[in-house]
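User: Please predict the structure of the protein below. I'd like the answer in structure-token form so I can feed it into my own downstream comparison script.

Assistant: Understood. Taking the following sequence of 144 residues as input:
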Amino acid sequence: MFFSRLATSPVWRSLNEMQHEVNHIFDRWGNQAFGQVEYPAVNVWEENEALHVEAELPGLALEDLEIFVTGHNQFTLKGERKAPAVAKGVQHRQERGIGKFTRTLTLPFAVDENKVEARFENGVLKVRLPKHESAMPRKIEIKS
């Protein structure tokens, strides 16, 4: 009984709203709010009828990468950076991350996953995600 009253109280609603706002901040800014940048670093921008994603992936091979679009607005980049093989000598420092990674971005609108284009040039993955027809503005006829 106590918990059912608590769940409907104004304080509880306020706490839920605050949690929603904090989640929104983390969704938008990720770990950057704490000075940490997720890997790989990405740039995302919108241009007319498409969204563009660029990811810096130096040293990776094309066969080490996969991209997915799910639910019309989720973009996922998966890959693996393999440890460098030091044939001779002793390695003194390892600052570049190694291992498997997954980066998922929630896109600001639905995209047409059948028309996605991706290129991998000089260690940079470039992806063009065309807007889905449902995300395109439509001119509405005004009747008198």
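That's the full token string. The mean pLDDT is 83.
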